[in-house]
Amino acid sequence: MFNNSRFIPYIFLLLAVLLFTLAISSILKGPADISGLQIGDILKDALFNIDNKNSIDWQQSIILDIRLPRIIIAIFAGASLALCGLVMQGMFRNPLASPSVLGVSSGASLGAVVAIYLGASLFSPWAIPLFAFIGAGISLSIVYRIASSRGQTSIATLLLSGVAISALNVAAISLLLAISLSNWDVARMIIYWTMGGLDGRTWDHVLIILPIVLSGFVFLLFYSKQLDLMLLGEQHALSVGVDVPRARRNLLIISTAMVGASVSVVGGIGFIGLVVPHILRLILGPSHRYLLPASLLGGAIALLSADLFLNTLFSDQAIPLGVVTAALGAPFFLFLLVKQRFATGNL
Amino acid sequence: MPAPLTCENLHFSFDKKPLLTDINLSFQKGEFVGLIGANGAGKSTLLQLLLGLLKTQSGKVLLQGVDISKIKRRDIAKQLAFVPQSIELPYAFSVQQIVAMGRNPYLGAFELETAFDKKLIEEAMQKTDIFHLQQRLVNTLSGGEKQRVIIARALAQQSPTLLLDEPIASLDICHQLETLQLIKSLTQTGKVAITALHDLNLAARYCDRLILIGKRQDGTTTIISDGAPKQVLTTENLKKYFSIEANIFQQDDKIQLNNIYPIAKNQKQESKKT
Q1: Is the pLDDT of residue A346 over 50?
Q2: Per-domain residue ranges for chain B?
Q3: Pairing state of beta strands B5-14 and B58-63?
C-alpha cells in the first residue's frame, strides 16, 4: 500500500461524519411519522430537562425509549465486534480471525441460552451477560490453546478449531431448546433471544453494553503498542520487552468481556469483526494506534448502516440483522481465503 | 561488577528428551562470541535460554548478577537485544517504524519517541545501511534487507548485550562481511555479542571466542569446547562434530579452513567399493 500518514486525520474525520450522519438518519427513520423539528425539540427537552410541551408524549417515548437506545446499542455492539476482531487478528497474527469465525460468539450465545434455561435471567439483568462472558471465555480459551500449543499454527488449524467449537455450541443450544420445549415459557424466551437484533432493546441493555465496551476500548488503547509488536511474532515482541503471555491473557479477557456484552444484547452478528478491521488495515496500515479508534467508528458504522438498510428497504419483513452482515461479509471472507491461498500457496 | 551475562548448570529438555545439559558460561564486556555446532545441535535453544524465552528445568541465567526469571521483560530488553533466526514481516509497517520498535522498552504505552530516540533510530539505520529504505514498507523488502532492519532494531535497543541467531544466513557476501564487521566494531566499544554462526571461516575470522556445542559420548548435548578459534577448530573437533575434513592454516593468531570435505559421504563411497 501507499504511505498515507498524511491522510489519516481526514480518514478519521470522514468516519466520524459518516457515523454522525447515520445516527441522525436512524433517528429520523421509523414506522411512526415524527418530523425532524419535533425530534430536535424532544432531544433538547431531554438533554436540558426543560418541559415546554411542544411534543406529544407518544412521540417522546418513541424517540427516547425506542429509537435512541436502539442507535446507541447498534453503535456499541458494532464497535465491540470490530474491536474484538481486530484484537484477535493481531493476537493470532491471522487476518481470518474474528469472534464469529473462532466460535467465540456462539460460545457467548450458548452461555446466554444456559442462563435463560436455568432461569438465572429472571433474577438479574446481568445474568445473561455474565453467562455469555463465561461461554465466550471457555470457547476462546479452547481455540487459543489449540492455536498456540506449539508456536504458530496454520490458518487451517485455527479455522477448523473455530468451526468445531461453533458446531458444538450450536448443537448445545439446539439441545437446550429441544429440552425446554415442554416448558413453553422458557422455550419462548430462548427463541426470542436467539433471534437477536436491535428490536425492543431498552436503556437496560444500554447500561450493559455501554460501560463494558467503553472501558474495554480504553484498556485496549493501553495495548496498542504491544499489539503492534505482537503482530511481528512472539519472539520479536518478547525481545523488545513485551510480556507476551500476560498481554495475551489480558487481551483475551477484555475481548471476551466485550463479545459477551454485545452478544448478550444483540445476539450473534457475524462478519463485522472480520471485515471491518481488515478494510481499515488496508486503508490505515497496521498500526493499532490508528486501527483501534478506527475500528470503534467503523464497526459502529457497519452495524448502524445494516440496521438502517433493513429499516428503509425491508421495514415490513422482520429480517434479522445478522442476515445482512453475513450476506455482505461471507463473500468477503471467501475472497480473503482465496487470496491468502494464492499468496502463501497453502492453508 | 558482575559479568553482563552468565549461566550456571543449565539443563533443558523438551518432551522429556534432554536437549542441553551442564551449560556453564560467562560472557565479558567486549567479547565477540560465536556459537557453532551442526544443525540441530542446540544453538538456537541456548540463545533462547539465555534470553529467558525458554524456561530452564534447572540452573539459572544471571543478567548483571540477577536471576533473569525474576526480571521484568521490559528490563531484560534494556540489557539484551535479540535478532531471531527466521523473520517474517508480512505486515505493512515502514522500515522506520520497525526500527523504532527497538525503543519500546524505554517508552510508556502512550509516549512518543523523543528527539534522542529519533537520533538513535537514525543512527541504527545508518549503521546497517538501510537509511535510504526508511520509508519503504517492510513487506516489500528482500530477505537480506529485512535481516538488516531487524539488526537495526536491535541496535536501537541500546542494550549492552546482543544475541543473534544466524544473523547473516540470508545476506549476500558483501552484507555478511559488513554485518560481522559492524558487530565487531560494537564489541570494540564494550558491548557483548553472542552469535550463532554456520560459516566456520567467518566465525574464526571475526569472533574472539568460539563455543562449540555438540553431543558427548553419553548422548547428552553440552559445550564441547570453549576458547579462541584456534583452540576450538581442531582437526579432531571438525571431524567429530561437523563430519568434515579440512586443512587448517594458521597465520599469526588467525586460522583458516581450506579444502573442506564431508567425511560421511567419502566413507560411504569407500564402503561401497570394499
Answers
A1: no
A2: 5-273
A3: antiparallel
Give the C-alpha separation, A248 to A251, whole Å: 5
* The C-alpha cell that represents A81 in the structure block: 465486534
Q: Count Cβ neighbours within 10 Å for each residue of A127-142 and write b for 16 or more, e otherwise.
A: bbbbbbbbbbbbbbeb
In this predicted model, what pLDDT tens digit does every residue of B223-234 receive, in sequence order? 999 999 988 988
Show the domains of chain A with their CATH numbers. Answer: 95-344 (1.10.3470.10)
> Under CATH, which architecture does the B5-273 domain have?
3-Layer(aba) Sandwich (3.40)
A241–B74 C-beta distance less than 8 A: yes
Residues 211-230 of A with CB under 8 A from B: 221-225, 228-229
Greater pLDDT, B269 or A229: A229
Grid coordinates in use for B229?
578459534
Please tell me the distance in Å from B21's CA to the nearest CA on chain A.
Answer: 23
Q: Is A115 left (phi over 0), alpha (psi -120 to 50) or beta?
A: alpha
Q: Helix, strand or coil for residue B73?
A: helix
In total, chain B counts a number of residues equal to: 274
DSSP assignments along B170-201, one per residue: TS-HHHHHHHHHHHHHHHHTT-EEEEE-S-HH
pLDDT value at residue B92: 86
Average pLDDT, chain A: 85
- This model of the complex carries an ipTM of 0.84
Chain B neighbors of A286, CB-CB under 8 A? 91-93
Q: Is the pLDDT of residue A81 over 90?
A: yes
Note whether A286 contacts B51, CB cutoff 8 Å.
no
Sequence-distant (≥ 6) Cβ neighbours of residue A247 within 8 angstroms: A223, A226, A230, A237
